[in-house]
Amino acid sequence: GAITFSGDDYKLLGVDLSELSELERTLEEAGLNNEIPTLFIAEVVLTYMENTRSDALIQWAAEHFPRACFLVYEQVHPEDPFGYVMQQHFSQLNTALHSLAQYPDCEAQQRRFLGKGWTECSVMDMNEFFTCCIPEDEQQRVQTLEPFDEYEEWHLKCSHYFVLAASKGMEPSWTPLSPSVAVPCHTGPVGMAGSVPAAVCAKLSGIPGLRRYGHHSVLIKPNVVLTTGGFGEEDGQHCRVRNFFVLSKHAGHWEAVCVTQNIPDKRWGERLYHTVSCLSDTLALVVGGRTSPSSTGLGMLWLKFPETCDASGPDDVAVEFVSLQPAAEAAALRWRHSTTEITFKGEQYLFVYGGRSALEPVLGDWHFLHAPELSYTEIAVEGPVPESRHSHSACSWEGGVLIAGGLGAAEQPLGSVFLLRELEHGFQWQTIETHPPLVPRYSHTAHVHEGKLLLVGGVWFRASSVPGVTVINLMTGLCLNYVINLEHLEWPLMLHNHSSVFLPNEKELLVIGGGGNCFSFGTHLNPEPVLLSLSSILISH
């Protein structure tokens, strides 16, 4: 070891941390006084060492410094899909992360330090750290620095890094990880009631156009699904996807074809986080979406399918721009919102709710648009107004709407479920109490089947597992979580920014796309659509 730079109050040493006698000798040469309080900072350092070596270093520091603090920042949770992509990245660089196998979670890291001579140790993942230890004004400052729309990637990245503070011999004790903001605790495992098997669709593999995220899929008639928009693979590159795909089922197998669009302006098809609502066999409506996070909204489009189209679905789609009344325009200037069909006094309406816009990071307003001419209609709504949210789910149910989860104003996932139900003169918001309480989540999809609300995937802050399928009994409020069994998949399934379609006859969910950019570790797009079989969990309740 050698002193490579020496200033009055700063010394830089080049030394192999696994050679402890060499480290000791170099520190002594540099004039370090072990008796005064000493802070060790290891920012993604220990994990690159073999565990026996890093363990020895942690123990050495405790034994040689009577008053010391040790701060660690590095990766955690190797076992879930994001963790898998993260590990692959470091392995490809020939810099494998050694700590993960032996110390896969925060609790294991805490036990590690307490067992190696440190008397106090606190640890939290970076979602908890950002939420609890960063003052609210600083959180808000950071959140408004630039247009930002990668919440899923940010929260997943933060759930795979932790900060740990250990100390010994400090008077008063050293507690840098004490929460300054009072928020509900997100730790603790999520109880699972069982599992749901996942299988790939044989004939849908190898179709690059289905590798996308931020897109939308809708059932336009039984066994015919239209997928539009999003970001993914097209013509051999990653871009905003213009092509529409129609998936249809023949003789028990799903097939996909790329459909041609008759579009006056090619850019209309390029959008993420929009909604598509099917108003009839021949007509669907695209609402909102974005190109970049600073785009101001893309208006609405009609998608018209030929009336003659057979069971395999339309072979071309005519796209027309919708000219809206000024009162209805605000409904279209948003993304990460929901658009749901409802009925009021026997008439069909579209209910556009929440989302975000270029000006507002989260919206809590709603709009009733009378179908099919989309005239803006004032309808009275009473009851407790849900807090603003985007990336929530919304389903039609008994003429009204079920809203679940979402990301709220402070970029915190929400666990509330609301029903907007029809009264004689308007609608009323009602809270649906779930028990055990629904784990807060966003970026999931949702479906209703026979009085049960199904939530699929999403992002939550409980890093011990990833969201699978949650079933909420709308009569009793009973809320059960199921893990997705991936043993028949050869790749990690990322269930955020995906789309899904529920097939009531088969009691199956067809999950299309999903994934995203995984921090600096590369982009993971689910390579092919997946079928989740729900028959066992829908019968058992």
TrEMBL record:
It catalyses: 7-[(3S)-(3-amino-3-methoxycarbonyl)propyl]wyosine(37) in tRNA(Phe) + S-adenosyl-L-methionine + CO2 = wybutosine(37) in tRNA(Phe) + S-adenosyl-L-homocysteine + 2 H(+); 7-[(3S)-3-amino-3-carboxypropyl]wyosine(37) in tRNA(Phe) + S-adenosyl-L-methionine = 7-[(3S)-(3-amino-3-methoxycarbonyl)propyl]wyosine(37) in tRNA(Phe) + S-adenosyl-L-homocysteine. Its EC number is 2.1.1.290, 2.3.1.231. The keyword Chaperone does not apply. The keyword Mitochondrion does not apply. Gene3D superfamilies: Kelch-type beta propeller, Vaccinia Virus protein VP39. It is an enzyme of class 2 (transferase). GO terms for biological process: tRNA methylation; wybutosine biosynthetic process. Keywords: Methyltransferase, S-adenosyl-L-methionine, Transferase, tRNA processing. GO terms for molecular function: tRNA methyltransferase activity. Pathway: tRNA modification; wybutosine-tRNA(Phe) biosynthesis. Belongs to the methyltransferase superfamily. LCMT family. This is tRNA wybutosine-synthesizing protein 4. It comes from Peucedramus taeniatus. The lineage of its organism: Eukaryota, Metazoa, Chordata, Craniata, Vertebrata.
